[in-house]
Write a structure and sequence with these properties.
The protein contains one helix and twelve strands, in the order αββββββββββββ. The chain is mainly beta and 179 residues long.
């Protein structure tokens, strides 16, 4: 499925105005085949659809692969994001790399109201990752956060408390800048 064609035919085609001039127009970095969790909250989250994170357009989109159509999109509250996923209640969890740079954030976003219902920027824990990052909702309700660029990981409660964290001591490359 040609993602650019599907986006260009959709009501969200204006997102393409933000496209960079280099060949990596969308930088689709996460593709999640939806299992129907959250479909009662928003019909775009139906089983079989695909949630896609478009880093270079600062957008999240849902593609219906049978119709080859974008059926939902959102942008504006995050930048250069990674690792979007659907939680059991139909909200979306994502790693917001740079909208509040030099800090990154983890966001929980409601696709119906367009509201951010929870965010965590690390407070006393240095959450900062410009180029990568990961986030995963855990069965306990806590969130696993990985700041890839700094080599850090933490488990965070809904109240923002860090349950545990790990900072990798391993470095490589010229000047030890790689983790």
């Amino acid at each position: 499925i040609a993602l650019l064609d599907a986006l260009g035919r959709s009501p969200w085609a204006p997102l393409l105005r933000k496209a960079p001039s280099h060949p990596d127009v969308t930088h689709a970095n996460t593709l999640v085949l939806l299992d129907g969790r959250g479909a009662a909250h928003h019909p775009a989250l139906a089983a079989g659809n695909v949630l896609i994170t478009l880093r270079n357009l600062d957008a999240l989109v849902v593609l219906d692969p049978e119709r080859e159509e974008i059926v939902w999109a959102a942008t504006g509250q995050w930048a250069e994001q990674h690792e979007a996923s659907v939680l059991d209640d139909g909200t979306l969890l994502l790693f917001d790399n740079t909208s509040h740079w030099p800090r990154s954030r983890v966001l929980r976003f409601d696709p119906v109201t367009d509201a951010i219902t929870w965010s965590w920027d690390g407070a006393d824990w240095p959450l900062s990752s410009r180029t990568c990052g990961a986030v995963h909702g855990l069965p306990s309700g806590n969130v696993l956060v990985v700041a890839s660029d700094s080599g850090r990981a933490a488990e965070v409660t809904p109240d923002g408390e860090v349950v545990w964290d790990f900072a990798s001591p391993h470095r490589a490359g010229d000047g030890g800048v790689l983790i």
